[in-house]
Amino acid sequence: MNRFVFHGHPLVLHPDTAVFLEKTGDLVVSDVHLGKAATFRARGIPVPEGDAERDLTRLVNLAAETGARRLIVAGDLFHAPGGITPEIELSVKGFLTNLGIPLVLVGGNHDDKLRSLPAGLSSVPSFESGGVRFVHDPADAEGPEFHIAGHLHPVVRIKDGKRTSLRLPCFLLRGNLLVLPAFGSFTGGATVDPQPGDRAFVTLRDRVVEVPLTRS
C-alpha cells in the first residue's frame, strides 16, 4: 500500500499524483492547468487536444476509486484566460456533475489571472480540514500545522546509467509541508534542489516509493 504518516497525519500517496486523507475523505491534487493546450493552440503552436478531458476523467475516476467525500484542488485548476474556451467550460460543467462530491478550489497564481471562474466554481485563498492546511504556494505555508501545497511541480532526477537519468514527478516532503506533483498531463516540472531533511516519493508502476535525494 501507499500509506504514510507525516507529522501525525495518515494519508495515501496515490500513484496518479494525488493524495487521499483517510480521516476526512479528502482527495487532493494540484496544478491541473486545464486549458493549457488550448492556450498554446490560440498562439499558433500546434499541440494536440484532449488533455483537459483526459485529466477531468482521471479526477472523476480517482474520486470513485478512493471513495472521496470531497475534492480539494490546491491551486491552478486552470492555466490562463485564453484557455477557457466554450469546450473547456462544457467539459468542466460535465465534470462537476459526474464528480458528485463537493470541490474546493484553493486559488493559484494561474487561477487568479481569470476574470471569473466557470459556472459552479469559486475559490478560496486557503482551506483547512482535519488539522491540515491547504495552500497553493509553499511560501504561504506559515504556522505549525501540517500543510499541503503545489505550485512547484517538483521533479527528481534519478540516474539510470553513467550518463543518463530519469526525471520523475515527485511528492516532496519538506518539514511540515508536503508539495504535490503537478496533476495535469500537459505540465512541466522543476528539478528539486534538496534541502537538509527533504524526502521525495515517486511512482514506480502502481506504487509510490521513497527515493534518496542528492544535490547535483
Name some characteristics of this structure.
216 residues, alpha/beta, Purple Acid Phosphatase, chain A, domain 2, seven-stranded mixed β-sheet, 32% strand, globular
Could you give a short description of this structure?
With 216 residues, the protein is an alpha/beta fold.
Describe this structure in words.
With 216 residues, this protein is an alpha/beta fold. The protein has one domain: 4-Layer Sandwich (Purple Acid Phosphatase, chain A, domain 2). Helices cover 17% and strands 32% of the residues. The protein is built from three helices and 16 strands. The strands form two sheets. Strands 8, 9, 10, 11, 12, 13, 14, 15 and 16 form a nine-stranded mixed sheet that branches. Strands 1-2-3-4-5-6-7 form a seven-stranded mixed sheet, covered by helices on one side. Helix 2 packs parallel to helix 3. The longest helix has 16 residues. The mean pLDDT is 91.
